[in-house]
Design brief:
Blueprint (H helix, E strand, L loop, with lengths): L1 E2 L3 E3 L3 E11 L9 E11 L9 E5 L15 H7 L3 E5 L12 H4 L4 H9 L3 H16 L4 E6 L1 H12 L4 E7 L9 H22 L2 H15 L12 H5 L10 H10 L12 H12 L4 H5 L13 H7 L22 H4 L7 H7 L11 H5 L5 E6 L7 H10 L3 E6 L12 H13 L3 H4 L1
Parallel strand pairs: 5-6, 5-7, 7-8, 8-9, 9-10
Antiparallel strand pairs: 1-3, 2-3, 3-4, 4-6
Helix pairs in contact: 1-17, 3-14, 4-5, 6-12
C-alpha cells in the first residue's frame, strides 16, 4: 500500500497520490502485475474529517482521471460532500500507461490478449482492489461520466454491495450491447449535427470543401509527419457532441489558410488538426472504442455502417464530419495508433467471453441510481438509455435536452444527481457514513 504526502491543488483542495499493485490479468493473480494510480481529493477545510467516499468512473474507454484545476461543476459538488477518489483507468495516465510502441512488436494474438485485459471487467476489479487496500473495504458512492456509466452498470452487475448510491451522466448503455445497432442509430444523429453546424455557419461549407480539395490534390503533412487525408479531417466531427464543439471546430476552420487566396493551409491549422486527431494522449480510447459494446465480434461496425452512408464519403459534398467512430484505416494513417493495428484487427474478430451486464441481477438492483440522459446526445442513444433505465431497478432517469454529452461539466448537473440520491437515501452522505 503506497500513498504520497499531501499536496495542494489551487488554494482549497488537498490531494494525495494512491497506488495499488494489481494483476495485469485478474485470472492469473500470480502473474505479471501493473500499478493502478488514483488521486484522492478533499476540500481543504474538511481534510481532517471522516467523510464518505466517492469514486469517479471516468469516460473513455481508455480515459485517465480528471485533473481538476479547482472546485467547479461536478468536482465542487463532490467536494462539498465527499472525499473524492479519481483513478486513472489501467493503461492510462499514471496507471502503467500503454502506447502503440508497446504493441508494435507483439504477435497479433498477444497484442489482442493484452488489449482485452483493459476493459470494464478488469477496471471494476481494480477499483475493488483500491477500495479494499486503501479504504478497508468501506462502501463508496460512484459518479460515472459517459463510459463511466457502462462501468457503473458492470459494477452493479458484479459487486453492488460495494456501492451506496450511483450517479450517471450520459452513459446508460444498452443491456444487450450490439455495436451494429449502436452505429445504425449514431449516424443519423451525426448527420443532424452536421446540418445544424452548416446552418449555423453556412460559409464553412465552402471552406471545408476547399480544404478537402487541397488534401486530395496535395501530399499535406502534419507536424509529426503523418499525411492529412480527407477522412482524417472528417474525424474533427468527434467534437460536435460537446457543448462548445461547434465553436471549437468553427475557430479551427477560421484559421485554416495562410494566404488571402486560401490556397495554402496554415501551420496553426495543421498543428491543431494533428493534435486533435492524433490521439497520442489517449490511444486506448480508439483502440478499445468498439470492443466496449461486446460481447460478440465487432467486425468494424462503424466502418460497415459508414459504407452504407454515401453522404459521409470523403469525396461527397458538402463534406460531412464523423463522430465517435473508429475505422480500420486509422491504425494505418495515425502514428500513435499504428502499433495497435494487429491487436485491434484480431480483437474485432473475437467474441468477448465475459458478459458485460447481468440483466437479471440489474432487475433486482438494490442500489439507488440517478442518471442524466441527454436527449440529443450524439454519442449515447437516448432510446437505448431509456430502455436500460426501465430495466434497472432503482434507477431514476432525468431526461433533458438542455445539455450535450459533456453536461456533467456544467454547474448544477452533478448537484442535482447528488441531491436526488440524498433524498432517496434519507440524508446527506455524511449523515449516512
Amino acid at each position: 500500500m503506497e500513498r504520497s504526502a499531501e499536496y495542494p491543488i489551487g488554494t482549497d483542495i488537498v490531494a494525495r497520490d494512491v497506488w495499488t499493485t494489481v494483476p495485469l490479468d485478474w485470472n492469473d493473480p500470480e502473474g505479471e502485475t501493473i500499478r493502478v494510480y488514483a488521486r484522492e481529493l478533499v476540500a481543504a477545510e474538511r481534510k481532517n474529517e471522516e467523510l464518505p467516499l466517492l469514486v469517479h468512473l471516468q469516460g473513455g474507454p481508455g480515459g485517465k482521471g480528471t485533473r481538476p484545476l479547482g472546485r467547479s461543476a461536478w468536482v465542487g459538488a463532490a467536494l462539498r460532500r465527499f472525499r473524492l477518489v479519481i483513478p486513472d483507468q489501467r493503461g492510462t495516465g499514471r496507471s502503467t500507461p500503454l502506447s502503440g510502441s508497446d504493441f508494435a512488436e507483439l504477435p497479433a494474438p498477444e497484442a489482442a490478449r493484452r488489449l482485452s485485459l483493459h476493459r470494464a471487467d478488469a477496471i471494476v476489479r481494480d477499483l475493488e482492489a483500491v477500495r479494499a487496500t486503501h479504504y478497508a473495504g468501506r462502501q463508496w458512492w460512484t459518479i460515472g461520466q459517459s463510459y463511466g456509466g457502462f462501468l457503473t452498470l458492470h459494477y452493479l452487475s458484479t459487486a453492488p454491495e460495494a456501492i451506496v448510491g450511483s450517479a450517471v451522466a450520459g452513459g446508460l448503455a444498452s443491456l444487450e450491447p450490439d455495436p451494429a445497432e449502436v452505429y445504425r442509430r449514431t449516424f443519423p444523429r451525426v448527420r443532424e449535427k452536421n446540418r445544424r453546424f452548416q446552418e449555423r455557419a453556412p460559409h464553412l461549407r465552402e471552406r471545408l470543401a476547399r480544404i478537402a480539395d487541397i488534401l486530395d490534390a496535395e501530399d499535406v503533412r502534419l507536424p509529426d509527419g503523418d499525411r492529412l487525408t480527407v477522412r482524417r479531417l472528417q474525424t474533427l466531427g468527434l467534437d460536435f457532441g460537446m457543448g462548445p464543439g461547434f465553436d471549437r471546430v468553427h475557430w479551427l476552420l477560421d484559421e485554416a489558410f495562410a494566404d488571402a487566396d486560401e490556397t495554402r493551409l496554415s501551420d496553426t491549422f495543421l498543428a491543431t488538426v494533428g493534435e486533435s486527431t492524433g490521439f497520442a494522449t489517449n490511444p486506448l480510447f480508439i483502440a478499445l472504442q468498439e470492443s466496449i459494446y461486446g460481447p460478440g465480434p465487432t467486425s468494424w461496425a462503424a466502418q460497415r455502417e459508414r459504407d452504407a452512408q454515401p453522404d459521409f464519403a470523403p469525396d461527397a459534398r458538402p463534406l460531412l464530419l464523423t463522430g465517435e467512430m473508429v475505422f480500420p484505416w486509422m491504425f494505418e494513417e495515425i502514428r500513435a495508433l499504428r502499433g495497435f493495428r494487429a491487436g485491434v484487427e484480431l480483437l474485432a474478430e473475437q467474441a468477448w467471453p465475459i458478459e458485460m451486464y447481468d440483466p437479471a441481477r440489474l432487475a433486482e438492483n438494490p442500489v439507488p441510481v440517478e442518471a442524466a440522459v441527454y436527449f440529443d446526445d450524439m454519442y449515447v442513444d437516448a432510446g437505448l438509455s431509456l430502455d436500460t433505465a426501465a430495466r434497472v431497478s432503482g434507477l431514476h432517469a432525468w431526461v433533458t435536452n438542455e445539455f450535450e454529452h459533456d453536461g456533467i461539466h456544467h454547474d448544477g448537473v452533478a448537484e442535482r444527481l447528488f441531491t436526488a440520491l440524498e433524498h432517496r437515501l434519507g440524508g446527506t452522505p455524511a449523515t449516512r457514513n
